[in-house]
Write a structure and sequence with these properties.
With 435 residues, the protein is an alpha+beta fold. It is built from 13 helices and 12 strands. α7 runs antiparallel to α8 (239-265), α9 (277-294) runs parallel beside α10 (314-330) and α10 runs antiparallel to α13 (401-411).
Length: 435
């Protein structure tokens, strides 16, 4: 070999050694930082000193390449952080349907860890795959795009999550290597949609109820007056007296139902003030004490040591709590336990309740009133309906009581929720603001 070749070989070996020192920088940087920390040297430069015998221009080129590498790494981390922390959920899959990328929000929505989803087939997390599986096949059609479509996915816990999604082909040069799925959870939106539809129905029924109530109520007064005249004309032992008395009682019952219609159709605007809810509960107890004794129901109060005053319409709150107490008594014809608790809480403590955005932003403290019975309980299929107007599981009444309660609490910027198990009892939670 020529001497010139040997010189070049030696130079390349020195350069490779320098490269090997440059590439695995992490540990080297940490070691240098530790050494400088011990020696008190404030400099943190990681630029290597030139190795003896290596041409200067080669080292400068290597340093330039190293700076480009660091720049590319910073850009990669920057964009990855953006994608990982986007409010939208993103899942990528290859052309066989295998999941290749999941961002943080997507994993959170589905209640998985990111690594638990990677490598799984997309069809595994689609609800009712025999029905919705075709949508995955359509996504994988080359250059196929979807805009604002809906499908249901399954979370790790097995709950069904409705999502709205869009897809974009994932290309590498001119070849499609996968699909990018961008989606968002539609659970809250669908709940809001149902609430809007419900409010529309309520508005229509309210107008109808008002018209019917006025038309029916007007002649009731005359019918009752005529019946009372007849009642006074009969002797005390006349058999017809009981029939007329029954007419009067039924007229009163119909009139009470009409009053419920008026309350539902035209609720009174709350007259809010500060008051102690425990005082209200004590006053209600005095009114229902006889019924509790007759039904052999044990009444318990578990009040928190320090509960602030609530800011609401006291009369409306009394009406709501009385309705819940009476329902609880009716649910325990053979006796049982009726427990009422009060405590201070916040919106975040009860995430399963649905609040309007303006309340959530204010982060208001609330007083919670829990009323629990050990009665017959409410069937699961009825839980979502019990606050709907005209829905009732009782033989009497028109099913407006809890509907009116729900509206009154909502108008006082509060919330009402129920948990129940058939055979075990029900628990109503009423939350009211403190300001």
């Amino acid at each position: 070999m020529s001497k010139r070749f040997e010189e070049k070989k030696e130079a390349f070996e020195l350069l490779n050694k320098e490269l090997s020192d440059l590439i695995p920088l992490d540990q080297r940087i940490q070691n240098r930082k530790a050494e400088r920390k011990e020696s008190g040297d404030a400099q943190t430069s990681t630029t290597p000193t030139p190795a003896k015998g290596i041409p200067k221009e080669w080292l400068e080129e290597q340093r330039a390449l190293h700076e480009k590498y660091k720049l590319i790494e910073r850009v990669y981390k920057f964009y990855r952080n953006i994608i990982q922390n986007m409010s939208s959920s993103i899942i990528c899959m290859d052309m066989k349907g295998a999941i290749t990328f999941v961002n943080v929000n997507a994993a959170k929505t589905l209640d998985y860890k990111i690594e638990e989803l990677l490598g799984r087939n997309m069809i595994d997390i689609v609800a009712e795959p025999e029905k919705n599986g075709k949508i995955i096949d359509l996504m994988l059609i080359e250059n196929k795009r979807f805009e604002s479509k809906e499908v249901k996915l399954i979370s790790k816990s097995g709950s069904v999550i409705p999502i709205g999604f869009s897809t974009t082909p994932l290309n590498e040069k001119t070849e499609q290597i996968g699909v990018i799925i961008t989606f968002r959870d539609l659970t809250e939106m669908q709940l809001m949609r149902k609430q809007v539809e419900r409010m529309d129905r309520l508005a229509t029924m309210g107008e109808l109820a008002t018209g019917i109530a006025h038309e029916v109520r007007n002649p009731l007064g005359g019918i009752k007056a005529a019946a009372q005249v007849l009642e006074e004309s009969f002797e005390e032992n006349d058999r017809r007296l009981e029939l007329v008395s029954r007419i009067v009682r039924e007229i009163d019952r119909v009139n009470n139902l009409l009053m419920d219609f008026f309350k539902f159709a035209k609720p009174v605007k709350p007259a809010r003030n500060y008051f102690n809810v425990e005082t209200v509960i004590d006053s209600i107890y005095l009114l229902i004490a006889t019924q509790l004794t007759n039904k052999q129901i044990i009444f318990r109060e578990e009040f928190s040591d320090v509960v602030p005053q609530i800011y609401a319409d006291q009369h409306q709150v009394e009406q709501v709590l009385m309705n819940i107490f009476l329902n609880a008594i009716q649910a325990m014809p053979e006796g049982g336990n009726l427990t009422v608790k009060t405590y201070t809480t916040t919106i975040g403590d009860l995430p399963h309740l649905h609040w309007s955005d303006d309340l959530f932003d204010k982060k208001l403290p609330f007083v919670a009133i829990e009323i629990a019975d050990t009665g017959c309980g409410i069937p699961e299929e009825s839980l979502e309906k019990i606050f709907n107007p005209f829905y009732t599981t009782k033989n009497e009444g028109m099913g407006l009581g809890l509907s009116i309660c729900s509206r009154l609490i909502a108008e006082n910027n509060g919330n009402i929720h129920v948990d129940s198990e058939v055979g075990a009892g029900s628990k109503f939670i009423v939350m009211l603001p403190t300001r």
